Amino acid sequence: METKRFGFGIIGCGNIGPSHANAINAVADAQLIAVTDIIEDKAKSFAEKFNVKCWYTDYQEMLKRDDIDVVCICTPSGMHSEMAVAAADAKKHILCEKPLDISIEAIDKMLDAVRRNKVKLSGVFQRRTYDSSIKAREAVRSGKLGKMVLGDAYLKYYRSQEYYNSADWRGTWSMDGGGALMNQGIHGIDLIQWIMGDIESVFAKAGALARDIEVEDTAVIVVTYKNGAYGVIEGTTSVYPAIPTRLELHGEKGSIIMEEQTITKWQVIGEESKTFEGDEKVGGSSHPTDISATGHIRHVIDLISAIKEDREPAINGESAKKAVEVILAVYESARTGKEIRIDDLR
Ligand SMILES: NC(=O)c1ccc[n+]([C@@H]2O[C@H](COP(=O)([O-])OP(=O)(O)OC[C@H]3O[C@@H](n4cnc5c(N)ncnc54)[C@H](O)[C@@H]3O)[C@@H](O)[C@H]2O)c1
């Protein structure tokens, strides 16, 4: 029996587009059919590199193709919703880069379009797919660490001024939606919330300390989780050198410390302490294109299974929206000097 191959189209042939193309090529029942970039040269050379016959400069044209089942959205963050709504209205399933978009209104429009058209939407947060993340979450959620006391995330990236100057959308409120948090730190904020449980409130300071940008390059946040635990999140793109992303999960009966995909400490009362080296390479803290395809491959596999089984993807729209809500609350707290409850923004 011939198995159906799912046709994919990519919108946006910049830094992250190749991770999607590599992932699609690595999955047996996925096939990259066409790509779009508003810059003709980029679309053309991307298509040549990945041996794709069809390229477009207008994504609406690509959406007319019957042989495309899934659209990967890899464009500047503030464009995601508009493109997702158009893709959903064209009855395409969607794999959308983080953040889903940069405002709750824009995200809700895409979630409505997805519901209305009965298509699937998966948000990319590749770190959730890593074995170490899954192990840490299971330990916290099963009560292995006892009552949770602290959930900390240290998200220290290095991005030069040249990085911010490299595309006109970077470091802007209108298209990046923020800086060190909305673009880079969002991975760690999503992950710690996925592991610890929902964040209830934030109290933050944020500013541009070293880069000439309108959004924050550095932020410090005091967090309260709904389960009663406290935490600290530090995010920056302006320290040299970048430090591997570090999550520290502490309960009254045990602690887990993760550095990128490696669990460097797993110590629980009554158990032998251990470490765990995941086989995924995370990357990205020093350079934006230094990202392995492993997580994106897992996203493609999950989305295809979700379509076949008619179930929600592992990271559906509602789930991917949560990190954006927290970051918008952080910005509101930094602006007003007040503690902000996430529920009050809803
Ligand atoms: N998951 C990850 O680890 C990861 C890593 C990097 C970027 N991202 C996300 O991916 C998105 C893109 O980031 P990037 O660094 O690849 O940006 P980029 O600027 O390198 O690439 C974006 C591409 O979109 C194209 N584009 C702009 N407007 C378009 C339009 N109307 N139609 C078609 N193409 C258009 C641009 O010409 C450019 O080639 C962002 O949302 C970012 O947050 C995710």
CATH homologous superfamily classification of the largest domain: Dihydrodipicolinate Reductase, domain 2
Largest sheet: 9 strands, mixed
Question: Poorly predicted ranges (pLDDT <50, ≥5 residues)?
Answer: none
Total of helices? 10
Number of strands: 15
What order do the SSEs take from the amino end to the carboxyl end, as H and E?
EHEHEHEHEHEHEHHEEEEEEEHHE
Helix content: 25-40%
Radius of gyration: 20 Å
Bound molecules: nicotinamide-adenine-dinucleotide
How many domain units?
Answer: 2
With strands numbered from the N-terminus, the spatial order across the biggest sheet is 14-13-12-11-7-10-9-8-15
CATH C-level label of the largest domain: Alpha Beta
Termini, distance in Å? 48 Å
Q: Helix- and strand-based class? A: alpha/beta
Briefly note the CATH topology name of the largest domain: Dihydrodipicolinate Reductase, domain 2
Proportion of β residues?
A: 15-25%
CATH architecture of the largest domain: 2-Layer Sandwich
What is the general shape? globular
Mean pLDDT score:
95
Helix-strand layout with pairing:
Blueprint: E1 6-11, H1 17-26, E2 30-36, H2 40-49, E3 54-56, H3 59-63, E4 70-73, H4 80-89, E5 93-96, H5 104-117, E6 121-123, H6 131-141, E7 148-156, H7 161-165, H8 180-196, E8 199-207, E9 218-225, E10 230-236, E11 246-251, E12 254-259, E13 262-268, E14 274-277, H9 294-309, H10 317-336, E15 340-341
Parallel strand pairs: 1-2, 1-4, 2-3, 4-5, 5-6, 7-10
Antiparallel strand pairs: 7-11, 8-9, 8-15, 9-10, 11-12, 12-13, 13-14
The structure holds nicotinamide-adenine-dinucleotide (NAD).
